[in-house]
Write a structure and sequence with these properties.
eight-stranded parallel barrel, alpha/beta, TIM Barrel, two-stranded parallel ribbon, globular, 2 domains, 36% helix
């Protein structure tokens, strides 16, 4: 990296992926409060349009653009949606950028590989005719063979895609396989590469960091790791780990604790006391000797995230 830290873009998906968390829903007012916290923390982009509810979510996207003009707004559109034409038109009017989703496993439509390649080229061409900032996301990237992922990525870039998002959709990847996959893609493409990790095996943060080490330009994250099933890579963990690793995100670490607590309250999903970075116990020591030389026992100075180091008195 040299003397200058490499910039990593964090795309927060709390208001899109987070709503796939069981029993979680947000009112428009709650969404706006969360969006304001993300804006204040310096998060550059928020993904707020889900492919299953594009037209509904675009209404809120317009509110964000009006009230929080610094934030980049983005969303997802299924390539095979029967409403794709209308969704692309409306997204082009309302979002700074959007990604076309093309599942790369043959078990999801369109089912043949040739059909995927043909449809992707058609939908991308339609999208780019009305909007310059269009990318492609590949669900199940870690479950398909690399050669097809490379082939369809080349088609996407040839047609004009500005970035590629690699999804570990079922959370089955590990840091070694993620590093190898992203490194291979990085060697082939100059467009931005993002990684979207799920946490089914508790490896989402590790996989995100592996992706960065292999050359990824950006990561998808959510506050408190909210998301489908076991959730996603938590914003607070990824942002701190990247800074400690001498990468630059622009995210204000001191905002993380308040943001985490607010999202826990708004979502109804309680934060574990043992949660890394922002959990209640992260800087609460039972042994007085730890406080004599705390960096021997702490991975980071808790003041970085606005937490005070304490001795457990109970």
């Amino acid at each position: 990296m040299g003397d200058q830290a490499r910039k990593i873009a964090l795309r927060d998906s709390t208001l899109r992926e987070g709503l796939d968390t069981p029993r979680v829903s947000f009112s428009p007012q709650q969404k706006l409060r969360i969006a304001k916290l993300l804006d204040e923390a310096g998060v550059p982009e928020i993904e707020i349009v889900a492919p299953s509810r594009v037209l509904q979510d675009l209404e809120f996207a317009r509110t964000v653009r009006e009230q929080l003009p610094r934030l980049i707004t983005s969303g997802l559109i299924y390539s095979y949606s029967p409403r794709a034409g209308e969704e692309i038109k409306r997204a082009s009017e309302s979002l700074h950028r959007f990604d076309i989703l093309m599942p790369v496993l043959e078990r999801r439509e369109p089912f043949s590989r040739e059909a995927k390649l043909t449809l992707l080229a058609k939908v991308l061409g339609h999208s780019l005719a009305g909007h310059s900032e269009v990318g492609v996301g590949f669900p199940h990237s870690t479950q398909t063979d690399v050669q097809f992922l490379l082939e369809i990525s080349h088609r996407a870039v040839k047609e004009g895609a500005r970035r590629l998002t690699i999804y570990d959709t079922n959370g089955s990847a590990n840091p070694f396989s993620v590093h190898a996959l992203i490194a291979r893609l990085r060697s082939e493409f100059e467009v931005a590469i993002f990684f979207h990790g799920h946490n089914d095996l508790g490896l989402a943060t590790a996989n995100a960091l592996a992706a960065v080490r292999a050359g990824a330009d950006g990561l998808d994250v959510t506050v408190n790791g909210l998301g489908d099933r076991a959730g996603n890579a938590p914003l607070e963990q990824v942002a701190l780990a990247l800074q400690l690793g001498r990468f630059e995100t622009g995210v204000a670490l001191r905002n993380l604790k308040t943001m985490s607590e607010t999202v826990a309250k708004e979502s109804g999903v309680q934060l574990s006391k043992l949660a890394p970075v922002v959990g209640e116990f992260v800087a609460l020591h039972k042994s007085p000797s730890h406080l004599m030389d705390p960096d021997l026992f702490e991975a980071f100075d808790p003041k970085l995230v606005g937490i005070e180091r304490k001795l457990d008195q109970q």
